[in-house]
C-alpha cells in the first residue's frame, strides 16, 4: 500500500518499523478532534480561496460521513497509515477522490497532532471541572450534616485537639476548590490554537488563522509557529494538576483506610464500595480508597513521563513527542475515574459519631484549652503550658482524663482554676470556642461551606 508520503522512497517500510512507528493503536481516540480540526481547516481554505468553495464543501461532507462511519463501527484503522491523521486523510481520499488530496494544503501533521491533543485536553479539562464540582458538593453536603460531629484532630497521627468531622471534610473541599481553580487557570493559559504553524515555519499560503481559531473556540492563534508545534506544556500543566488533585484524594483515602479500621472505627464503608477476602470470611476491605491511593503513584508516573520526554528535545517537532499521548490519556482517565468513585463512596459512608466523640475525649486533646483558660485568667502562655503539662503528667500517672481530675488537685497546681474549668475543657465546647477565621466552630465551618457553594456550586 503506497504511503501518503511515499514519493521520496524506493522501498517499502519494514513491517517491524511499521509496527514500532505507528500510533494508531492509541491515537484513534482523537478521531473526533482530528475531524473537527480538519473541517475548520477546510472551511478556511475555501473562504480564503486557497481551494475552491465546492472542493471545501465536498471535503467537509466527506469528513462528516467518515465521522459517522467511525461511530457506526464501519471503519477499521490501519497501522499502514501510521496514525489517526493519515488514516482519516486516506479514508477521505478513498471516499471523495482527488479533491481529498487538497485537504492537507498549508498544513502539517505536526500541526494536526498539536491541535488534536489540545482540543482533547481542553474537553478533558471541562469534564474534570464538572467532576470536581460533584466532588466538592458531596464533601460540603456531608460536612453540613456533621457540623456537630466531634472527632479528634491529629498531628503526627497523635490526638492533638478536638475538631468536627465537618471541619476535616471541609479541609478536603478547600483542596478540591484549588484543584478546580488549577483547571480554570489551564483554560486561561492554554486555550490557544497551534493550527497554522505548519510543520514548523508556518506557510506561504494566505491562511486565516483568526478564522480557524474562532471556529474551534480558541482565544486566538499561537504567536510562534515553532512553539505551536513543539511545546507540550499544556499536557504537563494538566498532568501536574492531576497529580496534585490525586495527592489530595490520596490523603483522604489514607484517612478513610485508617478511620474504617477496627482500631479507629470512625466510619463504616458501604458494602457496595468494599470488597471481601478470598480466605478470611470476616474481612471487609476499603479497596476503593486503596486503589485511589495506588493510582496516585501511576498519575505521578504519567507526569514524570511527559516531563522526561520533553526535557532534551531540540525545537521543533521530534518523533519523541509521539509519546505524549498515552500518559495524557491515562492521567485524565485515572483522575476522572477516581473523582467518580470517591464521590460515590463518600455519599454512602456511615459515620460512627459516638466513637469519634469518645476518641476525641482521650489523648488529652483539651489540654491546650486548659492552658488557654489559665492565660485568660492572667498567666503567660509559656507558664500556662508548663503547668498544664504537669497536670497532664499527673493524670497519666493516675490513669484519668482532665475532665475527671478533681478541682482541689487542679487548685494545687494553680489557684486560678475554678469550677468553670470543666465546662471550658468539654470537647464540644473546645470546638465551639475555636471561632477564629477558618477554625472548627460551627459558625466558621458554615462560612466555608457557604463560600464554596456560592462560588462553585450554584
Ligand atoms: N503520530 C505523530 C505523533 O503522534 C504525528 C505527527 C507526525 N509528524 C511527523 N512529522 N512524523 O506525534
From TrEMBL:
It is an enzyme of class 4 (lyase). One of its GO terms (biological process) is L-arginine biosynthetic process via ornithine. It holds the Pfam family Lyase_1. Residues 364-432 form the Argininosuccinate lyase C-terminal domain. It catalyses: 2-(N(omega)-L-arginino)succinate = fumarate + L-arginine. Belongs to the lyase 1 family. Argininosuccinate lyase subfamily. This is Argininosuccinate lyase. It comes from Peptostreptococcus russellii.
